[in-house]
């Protein structure tokens, strides 16, 4: 008898007792069932529900690789900054990775149509890169960086392109490397930030690698737009070094303008990101009216350690804001997204009095807390700049100013009412594809366009143009369910951290509750309780899993609540021998571990246990992929009997796709109405997704010998996942039928690792109807 078998054999009586008699528990007053002791319930700190007439509705997610030349669709293809033609019908975006600009027809915002691209090689040199675009009348101004890596000799230009035939009618040399562009509301001029960016691999004398100064210094170009394009000429606006020094800017001898915005009085606000400063310019005269420091901020209640756990007890002290995007709120105030660069980044956004430079309001830790509550916290950026607010735009809705703030790393845009600049009011969070960069309100059509810059074809994470419509007129066409569909509550002002949900199980003692768990994307392991009576569904309890009194980190892929208390976990190992059934008491204490039989474990790769279900005195498991000794295309379902420590194995026939590199696997198993329900999925996402489905398998009556069991389709989940009008998620991994009879499904967001991070939690209604009878 092997050592692992000895462990299982000596634990057999204990496991059987757990299944038959339950663990320490309380009694539910209504059902009489004995339930696990309830941890402290969290409360909803943010109201995410809004009437249809007062919210943005997601209309479409258009992956821009679909608009690229057919032979370049597997290359990096992004959408960074976008503009829209005056009629609001054509979005034009920059694709620096592809060295082109793209055109997208949004006359029907629910069904954008790609209109192809214009390569920069047709406008100049194949190595040129577009940095920004702005529509003016029948033209689009294409801001082009022509530096080509020679940081000491930066150069750039603006190409004036007629939208109708995409021909260049004029080109304006800028005398430096440009970044962003903004056009005055009256169309009289454009402002362009000439950054003359630093070389991040160069070390200046006496400085640090990538630091300043690295001359030449930057400036702002004002491009007069009077008359025909051939007459458009730039004016250069330089900054006084001593004035910048007196204002407390970092390295004022090398200023680097990053982002520009223009108000109704033709004042240009400019961020000097690396210098931690802001300048105000009179766009009509070119006079620099004001330069002030963006200042520093101390922020507490954030995660500052990249350690695989979300520890919100960290803080940053006196950190420079280093703002990126900027926008005017009226004529007196500016708002900045404080992404940070080489020295700073305060994980939030700030409103300044543009006349005095004083801080009117600062977001503190609220952006990061918003990410945690919605499952969008990115742990591998905890030590750097967290969610990194980078993009920002100001628009108006119902006569009130609204700020739109984009988190580059956590992949969302937060919406705030800033009618009271001293007390902004959170309104809504909008999910995006990875790396939101450009935020483009289209107020004439009540639209919002968000372009994203992160693209990885191999991982299936593709950049996109995300289209939203505001108000009731878009409600019927908007995605369902609205985001967020699941959030966490707060305990003592701190949100319960979560993400990477790969398991669901019904609460035996409460028909309107489920349990879920995070996998090893976040640790230590916890069992989370979900209140289904709230909209969105609310994670309001967390139960740490402990061994010998110490928290443990397990790759929990399956979870089953026992009828009389406690839980069974399906824990996936890095290799076959690491896969275990883990029996946990109602207080989270690990009581017993059961390993796989050696003949199975030794022939199992990195994809092992994925789902678990309790059926009377037996435990069912789903193994994600084939055991090496089994036929290709056949995964295993296992039935474990604790009473005699016996495993039985059955075969499950996997679907196939014709996609190169794809594979099909199992994600969840449940026992329902005398059958096994199996969740099966491919590795594809977005427009390529093919297999996301629940199948029904009859409970076998005979002893298992790996015979293949026939399956029937219970529900194709692809339409449900596509109904949200987002990027179709790859990892639909958990489902359960709650005590209330409804079928619930959840996706695993992988902790934002090679994923856009959105979690989709679906209530598909009565299971008898949702599963085809």
From TrEMBL:
Pfam family, one: Phytase-like
Alphabetical list of SUPFAM superfamilies matching this protein: Calcium-dependent phosphotriesterase (SSF63829), YVTN repeat-like/Quinoprotein amine dehydrogenase (SSF50969)
Top-rank lineage group of the source organism: Bacteria
PANTHER family noted in UniProt: MESENCHYME-SPECIFIC CELL SURFACE GLYCOPROTEIN (PTHR46928)
Protein name, UniProt field: Uncharacterized protein
């Amino acid at each position: 008898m092997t050592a692992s078998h000895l462990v299982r054999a000596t634990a057999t009586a204990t496991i059987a007792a757990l299944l038959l008699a339950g663990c320490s528990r309380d009694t539910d007053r209504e059902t009489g069932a004995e339930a696990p002791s309830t941890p402290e319930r969290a409360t909803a700190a943010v109201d995410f529900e809004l009437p249809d007439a007062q919210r943005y509705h997601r209309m479409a997610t258009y992956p821009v690789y679909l608009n690229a030349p057919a032979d370049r669709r597997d290359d990096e293809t992004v959408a960074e900054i976008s503009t829209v033609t005056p009629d609001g019908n054509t979005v034009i975006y920059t694709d620096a990775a592809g060295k082109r600009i793209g055109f997208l027809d949004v006359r029907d915002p629910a069904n954008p149509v790609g209109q192809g691209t214009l390569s920069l090689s047709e406008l100049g040199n194949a190595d040129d890169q577009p940095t920004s675009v702005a529509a003016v009348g029948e033209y689009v101004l294409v801001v082009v960086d022509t530096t080509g890596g020679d940081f000491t000799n930066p150069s750039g230009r603006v190409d004036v392109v007629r939208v109708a035939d995409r021909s260049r009618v004029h080109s304006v040399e800028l005398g430096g490397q440009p970044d962003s562009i903004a056009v005055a509301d009256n169309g009289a001029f454009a402002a362009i930030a000439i950054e003359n960016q630093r070389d991040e691999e160069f070390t200046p004398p006496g400085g640090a690698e990538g630091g300043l100064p690295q001359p030449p210094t930057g400036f702002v170009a004002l491009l007069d737009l009077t008359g025909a394009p051939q007459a458009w000429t730039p004016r250069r606006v330089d900054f006084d070094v001593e004035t910048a020094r007196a204002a407390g800017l970092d390295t004022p001898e090398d200023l680097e303008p990053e982002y520009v915005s223009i108000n109704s009085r033709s004042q240009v606000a400019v961020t000097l990101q690396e210098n931690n400063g802001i300048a105000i310019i009179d766009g009509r005269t070119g006079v620099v009216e004001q330069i002030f420091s963006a200042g520093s901020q101390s922020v507490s209640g954030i995660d500052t350690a990249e350690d695989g756990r979300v520890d919100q007890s960290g803080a940053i002290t006196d950190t420079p804001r280093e703002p990126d995007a900027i926008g005017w709120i009226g004529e007196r105030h500016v708002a900045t997204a404080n992404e940070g660069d080489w020295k700073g980044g305060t994980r939030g956004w700030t409103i300044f009095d543009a006349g005095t430079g004083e801080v009117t309001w600062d977001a503190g830790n609220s952006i990061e807390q918003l990410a945690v509550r919605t499952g969008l916290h990115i742990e591998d950026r905890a030590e750097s700049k967290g969610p990194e607010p980078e993009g920002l735009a100001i628009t108006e809705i119902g006569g009130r100013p609204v700020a739109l703030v984009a988190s580059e790393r956590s992949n969302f845009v937060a919406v705030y009412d800033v009618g009271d600049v001293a007390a902004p009011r959170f309104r809504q969070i909008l999910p995006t594809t990875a790396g939101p960069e450009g935020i483009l309100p289209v107020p004439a059509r009540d639209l919002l366009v968000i372009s994203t810059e992160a693209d990885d074809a191999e991982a299936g994470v593709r950049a996109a143009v995300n289209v939203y419509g505001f108000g009731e007129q878009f409600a019927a066409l908007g995605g369902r369910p609205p985001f967020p569909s699941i959030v966490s509550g707060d305990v003592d002002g701190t949100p319960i951290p979560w993400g990477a949900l790969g398991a669901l199980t019904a609460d035996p003692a409460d028909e309107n509750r489920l349990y879920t768990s995070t996998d090893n994307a976040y640790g230590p392991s916890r069992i989370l309780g979900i209140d289904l009576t709230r909209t969105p569904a609310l994670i309001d309890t967390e139960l740490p899993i402990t061994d010998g009194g110490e928290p443990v980190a397990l790759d929990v892929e399956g979870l089953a609540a026992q009828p009389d208390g406690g839980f069974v976990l399906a824990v996936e190992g890095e290799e076959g021998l690491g896969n275990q059934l883990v029996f946990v008491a109602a207080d989270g204490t690990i009581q017993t571990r059961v390993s796989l039989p050696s003949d199975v474990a030794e022939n199992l790769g990195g994809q092992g246990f994925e789902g678990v279900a309790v059926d009377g005195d037996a435990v069912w498991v789903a193994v994600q992929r084939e055991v090496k000794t089994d036929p290709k295309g056949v995964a295993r379902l296992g039935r474990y009997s604790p009473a005699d420590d016996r495993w039985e194995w059955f075969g499950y026939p996997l679907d196939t796709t014709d996609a190169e590199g794809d594979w099909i696997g199992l994600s969840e198993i449940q026992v329902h109405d005398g059958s096994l329900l199996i969740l099966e999925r491919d590795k594809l996402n977005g427009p390529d997704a093919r297999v996301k489905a629940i199948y029904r398998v009859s409970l076998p009556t005979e002893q298992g010998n790996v015979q293949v069991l026939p399956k029937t389709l219970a529900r194709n989940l692809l339409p449900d996942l596509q109904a949200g009008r987002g990027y179709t998620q790859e990892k639909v991994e958990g489902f359960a039928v709650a005590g209330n009879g409804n079928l619930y499904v959840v996706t695993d967001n992988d902790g934002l690792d090679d994923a856009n991070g959105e979690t989709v939690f679906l209530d598909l209604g009565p299971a008898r109807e949702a599963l085809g009878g």
